[in-house]
Amino acid sequence: MLKFLSLLLFITPLYAQRVATPEEVKGWNISIKTNGEGLPIGKGTAKLGEPIYIEKCAACHGEFGESAGRWPMLSGGKGTLNSHDPVKTVGSYWPYASTLIDYIYRAMPFGNAQSLTPDELYSISAYILSLDDIVKEDFVLDQNSFKTIKMPNEKGFFLDDREKSEKHFWQKTRCMKDCIKGKAEITGRAKAIDVTPEAK
Ligand code: HEC
Q1: I want to staple 143 with a disulfide (CB 3.0 to 4.6 A). Which of 39, 44, 123, 190 is the partner?
Q2: pLDDT tens-digit profile of 92-139?
Q3: CA 61 to CA 121: how far, in whole Å?
Q4: Tell me, what's the pLDDT at 190?
Q5: 61 C-alpha vs ligand 1 centroid, how far in Å?
Q6: Ligand 1 centre distance from Cα of residue 112 (Å)
């Protein structure tokens, strides 16, 4: 038994150190950048995507992306971002269509990730975008036409400017006591898990 274990300890590090082959790296490296770099080759329309979406996605996300039960909503929520209860969906919130394609490609359908062909991926993505009228139902989505898509909330995102905009808060020594000047007010709540303390 001991002999067997020491043999195993000897073999394992050698085995684990093998350099990944280019094919293996390619299999993992499926990131799609915001500018569309890395998009797979394929195409699809919302019309073609609807039946595939109904079969593979609707059980959780609802037929029109409205959500079935407590799964995430994928559509709707337009105009709610500044409200007390913002509804963040692909249509109302996401800044780039490439993020949608990347997300679905790597992670969905939940429990059977990376099972979609590129054509199914484009068709389903087009279907989801059509739910919020971002593309028409016969718009052919592919690695080039994707660049013509403008997401409604793209302008809602900007580069982190805290080095400038919050500079006046910064100080050399850390404050540990009575740090809030003026009156502190609760302006929003994490309602799902109710972590916000009650106002006194
Ligand atoms: C078994 C239920 C289930 C199925 C089926 C499913 N999803 Fe999801 N989906 C989820 C869950 C759960 C999340 C949230 C995952 C997380 O936040 O880690 C999610 C998240 C998403 C999101 C991101 C939503 C957001 O705003 O964060 C998208 C887009 C999405 N799914 C698309 C799809 C598509 C397209 C399909 C079909 C190919 C699909 N899903 C099938 C459960 C499912």
Answers
A1: 39
A2: 999 999 999 999 999 999 999 999 999 999 999 999 999 999 999 999
A3: 16
A4: 72
A5: 7
A6: 11
CA torsion through residues 93, 95, 100, 106, sign: negative
Instruction: Give 60-94 pLDDT, tens digit per residue.
Output: 999 999 999 889 999 999 999 998 889 999 999 99
Residue 144, number of CB atoms within 10 A of its CB: 11
Distance between CA 146 and CA 99 in Å, rounded?
Answer: 11
Rounded Cα–Cα distance for residues 130 and 16 (Å):
46
State the Cα–Cα distance between residues 119 and 117, nearest whole angstrom.
Answer: 5
Of the two residues 84 and 161, the one the predictor is more confident about is 161
Structural Rg of the chain based on CA atoms: 24
Q: Which of 48, 50, 60, 114 to mutate to test the pocket of ligand 1 (most atoms within 8 A of CB)?
A: 60
